[in-house]
Amino acid sequence: MFGLFGPNIEKGLREYRECENGVLIDVRTEEEFQNGRIPGSINVPLDKLNRVKIPKGKLFIYCHSGGRSAQACNYLKRVGRDATNIGGIASYKGEIER
Description:
This protein has 98 residues and is an alpha/beta fold. Helices cover 29% and strands 23% of the residues.
């Protein structure tokens, strides 16, 4: 899943789409999320991650460039969740939903 410089979001999204119980989570701020997001994703800002009920299933996490999603995955794994950092929307080439 990691490319030369970090997670490969396109590969991560393929895995998400193939996963029967996958949940796509954008951990950017609410404002960033409203400005453009990957279709099908839900917004759980990093600073609210420990206060929000996260849906069950395998979690696929992204942010802008991969840093916040890495932090989110570390936290989620510590609390026993199956979470994968798929990187940042900055390198995403697909459809953007607004």
